[in-house]
Amino acid sequence: MGSKQVSIIEVGPRDGLQSEPELLSTATKLDFIQRAVDAGVRRMEVTSFVHPKRVPQMADAEAVVCGLPKHDDVTYIGLVLNKRGFDRALAVQMDEIGMAVIASETYNQRNNGAAMQDSINAWLEMSAEARREGMRANVMVSSAFGCPFEGEVPLSRVLDIVSQVMEGDPVELGFADSIGVGVPAQVTEMIGAVREIAPKVPLRFHFHNTRNTGLANAQAAVEAGVDSLDASIGGIGGCPFAPAATGNIPTDDLLYMLSRQGVETGVSLDKIVETSHWLGEQLGRGTPAMLPKAGIFPQVAEQYEKAS
Q1: What is the pLDDT of residue 1?
Q2: Domain range for 287
Q3: Handedness of CA 243, 162, 168, 217 (dihedral sign)
């Protein structure tokens, strides 16, 4: 694949931890974030500004942001779902906010606590205010490939949402397979259709490995020329408001796949694997990622050769 480049957006500290039963301390979260930065991650979702009763794992959002390691070349993203969350992010001078609009009415009301159109309108208001305040703002169309409550999500609905949210001039337009139902042909079709109505905005995709198609979908997205892929160190996380929505694609496994075919990410696979092992210790159990268990090839083969 030559000299392709893809930006990896690490979502473990936010989408990863929000669905895990363990509540990590603020200091441990900041250690997690620093390790990702040390591995070469340059954009990262670090928290979400949501009601602590709904997502207790994110109750320390302000403390996390205030303790973030300062790096001129690192952008930290905080998820917001409404104006209250946006005001909290603004108060702590978040680098960038990310808003999610869910492509199904039922799921948007369960996750965002609002009608879909209300979420779109809230995004347009927040993006305008973010620009005035000098804050970056991105938007993601979530459950773009299917809804746990309504079933199939038609591409026409996704494109209708895109045409509306693009009026907010996002720095990046994202699409999430929040429950892991998408397949590569859908990814290719969606990217082609989106490029026709939003040809210049950077595209980002967020896949879940719930049905073991996450990495295949990531490969399809790379081949279609996306700018960024979300991934979670160790493959932790999911969505707490979707039934059985386990598993972001692991940063470890994704990096291995990309590096073996010459796609540049600027992120150290060795350091990500080290962080996965460390994260497993913090959670008190192994993480879903396959690569930390199997080892990096060909190094693992060389170790066997020496041992024999």
Answers
A1: 42
A2: 7-307
A3: positive
